[in-house]
UniProtKB/TrEMBL annotation:
Function comment: Involved in chemotaxis. Part of a chemotaxis signal transduction system that modulates chemotaxis in response to various stimuli. Catalyzes the demethylation of specific methylglutamate residues introduced into the chemoreceptors (methyl-accepting chemotaxis proteins or MCP) by CheR. Also mediates the irreversible deamidation of specific glutamine residues to glutamic acid.
Gene: cheB
Organism for this UniProt entry: Dyella thiooxydans
Name of the protein this chain belongs to: Protein-glutamate methylesterase/protein-glutamine glutaminase
Keyword Cytoplasm found: yes
InterPro entries for the chain: CheB-like, CheB_C, CheY-like_superfamily, Sig_transdc_resp-reg_Me-estase, Sig_transdc_resp-reg_receiver
């Protein structure tokens, strides 16, 4: 198997060295070069023909966003943005994803000894996934310590039965790599009186608030970052905060959002499996769910649990997914009967939400 060839672009010599070391910890990756700014990077892309670019946001002579915009217009290629965990960093990174970046990685802090393994594991996984992704353009080697992989059982036991306590439909959406743009496409097509939409997107804590604000500006629905105990209402979309699991619970009179600070599930927090499991237990057949583009398989088993509870389920198709990991895993499990292009998903979710409720399997 040929190695994924990576060019690291960052104005900090320390970050370039750190990123090169982290990427080189994976035998599947070869760092073919580094560049301190976009103008040098442009020449090295021509010379080295890398498979993936890691790109800093703030650089001299030309900022990363301007360079990315030019790159995606003239020579589209997989790009993983490297950003800071600040509000400004979040805004710029979300803009980069709009322009066609496949994914992003937050810069490791100065305490390298304690963060090396986790950071290296994350960036290597993102680069490997990016190498096989389909970018969508708008007009010393260290052994990695892999943490245990937990299931949704670590947060919420699976319910023995499922109910439709509220009666009215709820829409659930899960996504990861490429998901910020896929979610935008879906929400832009939702009317202001759409059923409530619950969303788990793999995203850091500093990014989820700005992401929710951006979605609120582009959707007729009211979009917000979910709060603990918040009532779930039609015409509203609720995005899981980064670093917390989002659950849907029935409090005796209405559905509410619940936030859970449990361990990562499938190495993610928030986890799509946790959201889907909670909805299988609390809403069951009243749920309409979609699993969108993303790396890994988080959400696949949760979607299957929803389907078994009588919910209507679908996945984004491979052709329009940046990475067909999560939806592909769900499809292989038989968790969904339909795989649709991204542009058709909103209309289909609304259509399914208007249909009479199904009965839970085995009920």
């Amino acid at each position: 198997m040929e190695k994924v060839r990576v060019l690291v672009v960052d104005d900090s010599a320390l970050v370039r060295k750190l990123m090169s070391t982290m990427l080189s910890s994976d035998p599947r990756i070869e760092v073919v070069g580094t560049a301190p700014d976009p103008l040098i990077a442009r020449e090295k892309i021509k010379q080295l023909n890398p498979d993936v670019l890691t790109l800093d946001v703030e650089m001299p002579r030309m900022d990363g966003i301007t360079f990315l915009e030019n790159l995606m217009r003239l020579r589209p290629m997989p790009v993983v943005m490297v950003s800071s965990l600040t509000e400004q960093g979040a805004e710029v990174t979300l803009r980069a994803l709009e322009l066609g970046a496949v994914d992003f990685f937050t810069k490791p802090n100065s305490d390298l000894a304690s963060t090396f393994s986790d950071g290296a594991q994350e960036i290597c996984a993102k680069v490997i996934a990016a190498a096989g992704a389909k970018p969508r353009v708008r007009t010393e080697v260290r052994k990695l310590d892999v943490p245990p992989r937990l299931s949704a059982d670590a947060v919420l036991p699976r319910a023995q039965g499922a109910g439709t306590r509220g009666g009215s439909p709820l829409i659930a959406i899960g996504a990861s790599t490429g998901g910020t743009e896929a979610i935008r496409v879906v929400l832009e097509q939702m009317p202001p009186d759409a059923p409530p939409v619950l969303i788990t997107q793999h995203i850091p804590a500093a990014f989820s608030g700005p992401f929710a604000t951006r979605m609120d500006h582009c959707s007729a629905m009211r979009v917000c970052e979910a709060q603990d105990g918040q009532p779930i209402q039609p015409g509203h979309a609720y995005i899981a905060p980064g670093g917390q699991h989002l659950l849907v619970m029935w409090d005796g009179a209405k559905y509410v959002c619940r936030l859970h600070d449990g361990p990562p599930v499938n190495r993610h927090k928030p986890s799509v499996d946790v959201l889907f499991r909670s909805m299988a237990a609390s809403a069951g057949a009243a749920t309409v769910a979609a699993l969108l583009t993303g790396m890994g398989d988080d959400g696949a088993r949760g979607l299957l649990e929803l389907s078994q509870a009588g919910a209507r389920t679908l996945v984004q198709d491979e052709a329009t997914s940046v990475v067909w990991g999560m939806p592909g895993a769900a499809w292989k499990l038989g968790a969904a009967r339909e795989a649709l292009p991204l542009d058709e998903i909103a209309a289909r979710l609304l259509q399914m939400a208007r249909q009479p409720l199904k009965s839970a399997v085995g009920a």
